[in-house]
Each structure stands twice: as C-alpha cells, then as structure tokens.
Write a structure and sequence with these properties.
Blueprint (H helix, E strand, L loop, with lengths): L6 H19 L2 H7 L8 H12 L1 H18 L1
Helix pairs in contact: 1-3, 1-4
Function: Involved in the early part of the secretory pathway.
Subcellular location: Golgi apparatus membrane
Family: Belongs to the KISH family.
Length: 74
C-alpha cells in the first residue's frame, strides 16, 4: 500500500485525480454538473480535467512509470 503522506503517495493521488477528472469530462451529464465551474474550489476539478486531456500522453507515461515503481521497486 502507498502511504498518502509520502511523496510517492502524493504523486499517485495526483495522477489518479487527473485521470479521473479527464475521464469525467467525457461523460456529458457529469461534465455539465461537476466541471462547469472554472474558478474556486470546484475549479480544481476543471483544471485537472484540462491537464488530463491536453497532456494525455505525458500523464499516461507517468502512470505507467509510477505503476512500475510501486509494483517492482517499492
């Protein structure tokens, strides 16, 4: 298990958050409900979705590297 309070735990949480928000952006009902705000606390979801869709290749490579690190090196 990855501890949330360690640096690799924070990286895993961030990657999963970005990937989840990018996925939710593709669902029409959730897109209008969750990602409609662009400022404030709810704007974090929108910004993570934008990062996930615009930088999908680096995010996917980062997920693969992190999975390799957690499975084989940790």
């Amino acid at each position: 298990m990855t501890n949330v309070y360690s640096f690799d735990g924070i990286l895993v949480f961030g990657l999963l958050f970005i990937c989840t928000c990018a996925y939710l952006k593709k669902v029409p009902r959730l897109n209008s409900w969750l990602l409609s705000e662009k400022k404030g606390v709810w704007g974090v979801f929108y910004k993570a979705a934008i990062i996930g869709t615009r930088l999908h290749i680096p995010v996917a490579i980062s997920c693969l590297i992190m999975a390799f690190y957690i499975i084989f090196l940790k």
